[in-house]
Amino acid sequence: MNKIIILAGLVFFTQFQSQELQKTMIPKITNEFEKITIQNSKKKDDDRCIETPEGRNEIFSTSEGGYKLSIYYENSFYKSDKFYYKNGYIKNKSLAFNTGSPVGILYHFDKSVKLTKEEYTDEGYSFTPEKVIMYCEKNKIDLPKGYHDSGYQARVLKQVLDGKKVWVIEYLIPDGDIQKVVLDGQSGTELEKKVVPFVSR
Questions:
Q1: What is the pTM of this model?
Q2: Which residues of the chain have pLDDT under 70?
Q3: Is CATH 3.10.450 the classification given to domain 129-196?
Q4: CA distances from 115 to 31, 33, 36, 104, 106 (A)
Q5: Which one of 65, 66, 74, 107 has the lowest number of neighbouring Cβ atoms within 10 Å?
Q6: In angstroms, rounded to a whole number, what is the distance separating the alpha carbons of residues 66 and 140?
Q7: Helix, strand, coil % (nearest 5) of the chain?
Q8: Where are the domains positioned within the chain?
Q9: Across the chain, where does the E strand assignment appear?
Q10: Cα–Cα dist 94/102, whole Å
């Protein structure tokens, strides 16, 4: 009987830990219209990183045909990327790995503030972003949380290899080169693992 109680307690604790981890790891993003404020535009027009009272780091910059706002969260592997038209209206927004590809839904808006498309960026990836994070933790690959203003940070990219959707993970190894790992987007199987020279980006 005691073993059953202990086991039930462990299951509950694991579920609680997982829920708490999800809260800190995955920021919320909605399909609601947004408009960037003039105050933010003036505050960040030098492209530097601004730390907010909520513990976020925001980088505002000009982008082709408008503006870009990247928001980094202290305890998260993900950031919010938001692109705006020149009039300040939202053009598209999504979550992305801090150094990597978009995940989840990419929301597209037209200049009249209408939501025109919801693009499911994880389509074809049964091996989900969360499983990629677990793979990295298991293999001691240090994915960046929050904003880092210098140094090479591990990145996670979505690519197509021989007609197949894959995850590409690149991270620095002790000798100064880059370890590149390619995972099957469906199964998570390692398709390739090789060392490539470090090239500054």
A1: 0.78
A2: 1-25, 37-55, 200-201
A3: yes
A4: 7, 8, 16, 16, 11
A5: 65
A6: 39
A7: 20, 40, 40
A8: 28-120, 129-196
A9: 49-51, 56-63, 66-73, 78-85, 90-97, 102-109, 115-120, 155-161, 164-172, 178-184, 190-196
A10: 6
